[in-house]
Amino acid sequence: MFKKFDKEDITGSTQLKSSVQKGIRNKLVEQFIDLDKVIEEILPKKENFKVIKGRDHLELITAADGTVLFIKHRDYPYFPTLKLLHQYPFILPHQQVDKGAIKFVLNGSHIMCPGLTSPGAKLDETIEKGAIVAIMAEGKEHALAIGSMTMSAADVKSINTGIGVDNLHYLNDGLWNLPKQA
Amino acid sequence: MLLPHSNRPRNLIQKSKTARKYRSTFCCLPLLSAYIFFIISSPIALIMNTEIEYPLTVRYCSVCTMPLEYCEYSDNKACQKQLANCKQEYKALPTVQLLTSSYKLKLDPYAAKRKQARKTPEGKNAKNDHNNVKNCITRNDKVKEATHVLGLEAFGVDLKEACKVFTKKFGTRCNVVRETGELFIHGNFVCQMFDLIPEKFSNISIRDIVDKGVRDVASDSDEE
């Protein structure tokens, strides 16, 4: 999604009402695992966070100092940036791809089912369609990308062809290299 | 048509028992070792670990801005030079390494003469014997190749069992070198190893095997 994304794609930033901010915070806590324990460090209640609007129905939630934290797109639920995920790896469920897929994922390609079912890959079978997952790489400690399941994990295992996970945000893409929006 | 078990010929029954025995030992071994391997090298916990302090600090490469372990996938050449620093923190995945070496047979001038003495009856011409001994010596001056297999222990493979597998398959002698944990096989079987090792040891895939080329070891071995 963020293959070509830079400053020019940003159309404006808005300050939100505190009631709206509260609503967003609750939604995030609801969606991610164990986020409520660390939400105070990420989005403190007393500080107002900004929303930056981008082209193509894109909203970036940034902290007061300008670091992008969460992304909201029209077609997908909220998902965190990779930098945030590296700091708090437990907020998303993990799917592991094998070594051979790393090169392609880093080019922005979507994750095919064989990449999740081959030896060296780990598939978490409890995950449903449309869920946001962290994509880990075989033999690596940190997340490689963030994606959204196009079919449930059980389907990935049985059908084993076609796209399994949509690649939303990966290392060294446009969003990763975006500077702080003060 | 399946004969009932008691009516089957005896040699078939025995074969199935031994096959079952080897299958069970081989099945348990890779599973157990793979399990242990994953436990030891498991990544950051999926669930929030109360003992770890969050946020975690991640070291990013100054050149490619990715976490250090991904430096090898960056296109930047300067970044790949930094890989040496990265590897100290992130150990490379274990691999099975194959090396070949060549060695000369030790010259044993008396062996040939002993052979000759056995064949010819006593009292034959001494001159003839000497000539034959010379020929035998030059014929023994052969350079033979050997294969070294390193790194099997990291996959939990029992070296003695592996040795038996190789001797059975290739029909040549195979030794275990205990100090380095490597297998020394007489003969060059590097190509066959790529097919044989994944076939016999299920937790090693063909991507884990690396051919490291020729090792410069001048070793003398006894004549077989």
TrEMBL record, chain A:
Location (main, coarse): cytoplasm
Keyword Transmembrane helix included in the entry's annotation: no
Biological process terms in GO annotation: formation of translation preinitiation complex; translation reinitiation
Top-level taxonomy: Eukaryota, Metazoa, Ecdysozoa, Nematoda, Chromadorea
Molecular function GO labels: RNA binding
Species per Swiss-Prot/TrEMBL record: Panagrellus redivivus
UniProt GO cellular component terms: cytoplasm
Domain PUA residues, every copy: 93-172
Compartments reported by the entry: Cytoplasm
PROSITE patterns xrefs: PUA
UniProt protein name: PUA domain-containing protein
Family: Belongs to the MCTS1 family.
From TrEMBL, chain B:
Domain spans labelled SUI1: 133-201
Superkingdom field: Eukaryota
Pfam families attached to this UniProt entry: DENR_N (PF21023), SUI1 (PF01253)
Gene Ontology molecular-function annotations: mRNA binding; translation initiation factor activity
Keyword list, A-Z: Membrane, Transmembrane, Transmembrane helix
Transmembrane segments: 25-48
One GO BP annotation of this record: formation of translation preinitiation complex
InterPro entries the UniProt entry points to: DENR/SUI1_TIF, DENR_N, SUI1, SUI1_dom_sf
Full protein name: SUI1 domain-containing protein
Species the sequence originates in: Panagrellus redivivus
